[in-house]
Amino acid sequence: MDRKLLAVALTVALGSFTVVLDMTIVGVALHTVSDYFGVGLATTQWVTTAYILSTAMVVPLTGWATDRFGGRRLWLVARAAGPARMGRAMGLMGIAIVFAPVIGPVVGGVLVDAGSWRWIFFLNLPIGLIAFALGWAFFDRNQPTTPDPIDRLGFILLAPGITLLVYGLANISSVEGLTRAGFLVPILTSVVLFVLFVRHALRTEKPLLDLRLFQNRTFSATVATQFLMNATLSGSMMLFPLYFQLVRDASPLASGLLLVPEGIGVAMIMPITGRLVDRGKSGLVILCGLPALVVGFFSFTQAGADASFIRLALSLWLIGVGAGCTIMPAMSTAYRALAPAEIPRASATFSIAQEIGASGAVALFVVVLDAQLRSGPTATAFTTSFWLPLALTLLVLVPALMVARSATRRAAYDATTEPTEDAELATSR
């Protein structure tokens, strides 16, 4: 990548890192916060869910806002990379996005052990200010590309619909909660709003969220992949630190450090996957990542109370490698299959799928873990709960294989029709 694209990608990566860090840094502090206030995990998980709720409300606006105000103010880098360098740019961004859930618990553990759990809520301020300054310096001062007004009706229907769905899922504190008004009312209301939005979006020329993109099978499969992968990783990152603290008697800092191998796996594989994606090997990369995820999560279903820490570290490393081989290569494949003008609204769709997946998984995992903790030994409760991320990983095989197949076909087509952007740049120089 040239210096300009590298600077833009690093800036976006730092911004993405800050966002994900906010959601994950509290993981190792949940047990401490729960003890401090004398409440259960079902209550303290709202610390994370409140962040997801606020994010879910504004995500539908990002596609329109990018066209209206320009990418410099809204940080969408995909169009700057071009198709030939998409893999490397997304790979660089992916290191931050997937690595943050590992850095977060470590930093959170340090702050909880050395100071107070309250400090975890201030860490994002200096990082955010640095990212903002870099974005102001390196992003092009591009003008709005379209003068289209905002789809007000679409926003009125979609934003509350997403928020109510997230709220309903997060409001489950037990299996009995599935039949209570706190779950049923927001969920049913969100379904009604979604139906109305779909009807509106299909009849509107410039909807807030372009549902016509789902006619692209690669895009649809990628959305499903992102939904399930984000659910798997978000839910498991809630389970891992609690397992190390409640079952293995680790301190908050130790539990955060024990998660480092997952980040190492991501950091090792992402630079490699970025180059392979740019060479048309997205399908192969995704196919290599899926087995690593399955093996890694299966190992935790057999962990119990005395599994070797070396084995668990290797399992986390495999999960990191699998995540690095799946998430960003899938997104790169989808972006390659879209027109440049479609990318902002496609990005909004990906974000919505990820937020709903994260909130749903956290709520589901809390329900299962809470029920298991009340009915049996702590180690057994986690053994049962670890089957959830494994089940989601097995579900993601279907859409991920579709993305891999599409990537392989795309690479074959590109190889016979036109040279890559890198080749054109080399020729011009």
Main features:
429 residues, single chain, globular, 20 helices, 0% strand, disordered C terminus, mainly alpha, Growth Hormone, Chain: A
The structural class is mainly alpha
What is the CA–CA distance across the termini?
15 Å
Main sheet: strands, sense, barrel: none
Q: Going by CATH, what is the homologous superfamily?
A: MFS general substrate transporter like domains
Per the CATH scheme, the topology name is: Growth Hormone, Chain: A
Q: So how many helices?
A: 20
* Number of individual domains: 1
- Total strand count, please? 0
- Give the overall form: globular
What percentage of residues falls in helices of 4 or more residues? over 70%
Oligomer: single chain
Poorly predicted tracts of residues:
71-77, 419-429
CATH architecture: Up-down Bundle
Content of β-strand: under 5%
Query: What is the CATH domain class?
Result: Mainly Alpha
Mean pLDDT: 78
- The succession of helices and strands, N to C, reads HHHHHHHHHHHHHHHHHHHH
Rg, alpha carbons = 21 Å
